[in-house]
């Protein structure tokens, strides 16, 4: 289940769904994209959604993240690639609400600062023109099977991708192992597949 934002807008979309539709599409011209796009989040999904929006023709794409650039889950390499594509990065900003009449809308964001490790909103506000908002602020498990070990919201796995529940493997950024990178997820999927094959062949 994708974590939710409550900013009162029907323009809010899940970035994961957008990227999935994009990768399955045979004609990119059928994918609607806004002129002014804002992506909420700081991970690889946010970067991916921002870059793809720009490539699809969006004039202004901004990735807004509530903490500093150094706190972002995306790698510095991917962030720099996005910036080179023309994506703008707005850090220390949290979305609050939408403003407008439906034809000329703005996203209101509050400036943040980190005090004792916690996010505190300041009195400063930012307005961004927007006609499409992508939400890329993380996911959480829809189910909680008995005996599945979780650490800080991540599924605990060993080097083979085995979870604490026999017969269940996991990989990618839902696990506590490795970096949140596509190449890491692919490698973990390969290792898990080999281990599953080994167990099925016994």
Describe the structure.
This protein is of the alpha/beta class. The chain folds into two domains: 12-135, FAD/NAD(P)-binding domain (3-Layer(bba) Sandwich), CATH 3.50.50; 150-201, no CATH class. Helices cover 25% and strands 26% of the residues. The strands form three sheets. A five-stranded parallel sheet has the order 1-8-2-3-4. A hairpin with a 2-residue loop joins strand 6 and strand 7. Helix 1 crosses helix 2. The chain is globular. The mean pLDDT is 84.
At CATH level 2, the architecture of the largest domain is 3-Layer(bba) Sandwich
Helix content: 25-40%
Largest sheet: 5 strands, parallel
Structural class: alpha/beta
How many domains? The number is 2
Instruction: Identify the overall geometry.
Output: globular
In percent, how much strand structure appears in the residues?
25-35%
CATH T-level fold name of the largest domain: FAD/NAD(P)-binding domain
Residue runs with pLDDT of under 50 for 5 or more positions: none
The string of secondary-structure elements, in order, is EHEHEHEEEEEEEH
Looking across the biggest beta sheet, what order are the strands in? 1-8-2-3-4
Q: Tally the helices.
A: 4
| pLDDT averaged residue by residue | 84
**CA distance, first residue to last residue:** 35 Å
CATH superfamily of the largest domain: FAD/NAD(P)-binding domain
CA-atom Rg in angstroms: 19 Å
Number of strands: 10
CATH class of the largest domain: Alpha Beta
């Amino acid at each position: 289940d994708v974590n939710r934002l409550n900013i009162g807008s029907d323009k809010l979309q899940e970035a994961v769904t957008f990227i999935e539709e994009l990768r399955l599409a045979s004609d990119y011209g059928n994918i609607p994209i806004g002129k002014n796009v804002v992506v909420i989040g700081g991970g690889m999904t946010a970067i991916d959604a921002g870059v793809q929006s720009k490539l699809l023709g969006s004039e202004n794409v901004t990735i807004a993240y509530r903490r500093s650039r150094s706190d972002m889950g995306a790698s510095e390499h991917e962030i720099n690639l996005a910036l080179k594509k023309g994506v703008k990065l707005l850090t220390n900003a949290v979305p609050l609400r939408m403003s407008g009449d439906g034809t000329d809308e703005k996203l209101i964001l509050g400036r943040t600062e980190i005090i004792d490790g916690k996010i505190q909103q300041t009195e400063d506000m930012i307005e961004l023109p927007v006609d499409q908002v992508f939400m890329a602020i993380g996911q959480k498990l829809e189910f909680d099977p008995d005996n599945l070990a979780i650490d800080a919201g991540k599924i605990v796995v060993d080097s083979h991708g085995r979870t604490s529940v026999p017969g269940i493997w996991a990989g990618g950024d839902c696990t506590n192992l490795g970096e949140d990178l596509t190449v890491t997820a692919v490698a973990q999927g390969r290792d898990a597949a080999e281990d599953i094959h080994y167990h099925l062949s016994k």
